[in-house]
Design brief:
Blueprint: E1 10-14, H1 19-30, E2 34-39, H2 42-54, E3 59-63, H3 69-83, E4 88-91, H4 106-134, E5 137-142, H5 156-176, E6 181-188, H6 194-199, H7 202-210, H8 220-230, E7 242-245
Parallel strand pairs: 1-2, 1-4, 2-3, 4-5, 5-6, 6-7
Helix pairs in contact: 1-8, 3-4, 4-5
């Protein structure tokens, strides 16, 4: 995927060293973009970028802590200085911890909002300023079905933060539309990643799978396919929406 003058589009994916972010980086690289592997772990970001380069794709690492405003500003300053553009931003970095509602620690609540919501806001603000110059841009926020429906116990901060991401996405879409910048969200259902393997107990995994008409967890590649569409020229008239990629979970009632 290239600009009007034939150069590859620049796509920054946060939290891209592993899991869903890594799969999105793979897919956008295969779509012909130069992918910037944003991650708090600089070594892992470099390893992922190097692996893509070895496979013949264009990729570069970016050290980025979305929970730190100074780190976000520095990363985007470097991107603008080196590439002069940021055509696609995928806000994928996030955290998830579970505690009973009445015992949910304040510091964990604040960390979820800082990383999942404020981090998304800051990255989108910086990216949008660059996109507005080019009058072309795609912002894709990774939300969750937990932001649309309560999913099990303990997800007070995670679910609330992802609901906020959905609301933030709609506000972005309205304000950026005149600049030809779209903003959309993807709401994954349960996806088989290193994080869910730690977070989801065997009992919870069984219960969650039983609530999904397709009777399985999704794959990172299935989330990446939705991101590929939203980042494409074909999605130019799509903005302010949330695409659930959840095997029918949100559509289903009692099974």
């Amino acid at each position: 995927m290239t600009t009007d003058n034939g150069t590859p589009r620049i796509a920054l994916i946060t939290g891209a060293a592993k899991g869903i972010g890594a799969a999105i980086a793979d897919r956008l690289a295969a779509d012909g973009m130069r992918v910037l592997i944003g991650d708090i772990d600089e070594t892992e970001a470099r390893n992922k970028a190097d692996a893509l380069v070895r496979d013949g794709f264009a990729a570069s690492p970016v050290r980025l802590d979305v929970g730190n405003a100074a780190s976000v500003a520095a990363a985007f300053e470097a991107i603008d200085r080196q590439w002069g553009r940021c055509d696609v931003l995928v806000n994928n970095a996030g955290i998830a911890k579970t505690f009973p509602f009445v015992e949910f620690p304040l510091d964990s609540w604040q960390a979820h909002l800082n990383v999942n919501v404020t981090g998304t806001l800051l990255c989108a603000q910086h990216a949008a300023r660059i996109m507005m110059r080019a009058r072309w841009g795609r912002i894709i926020n990774i939300a969750s079905v937990a932001g649309m429906r309560a999913v099990g116990l303990g997800r007070t901060a995670y679910g609330t933060s992802k609901a906020a991401v959905i609301g933030l996405t709609r506000q972005m879409a309205v304000e950026l539309a005149e600049h030809h910048v779209t903003a959309n969200a993807i709401a994954p259902g349960p996806v088989d990643t290193p994080m869910t393997r730690v977070l989801h107990s065997a009992e919870f995994r069984h219960a969650y799978t039983s609530a999904i008409p397709m009777n399985r967890y999704g794959t990172p590649e299935e989330i990446a396919a939705a991101a590929s569409y939203l980042a494409s020229d074909g999605a130019a008239y799509v903005t302010g929406i949330v695409i659930p990629v959840d095997g029918g979970f949100l559509a289903s009632g009692a099974r």
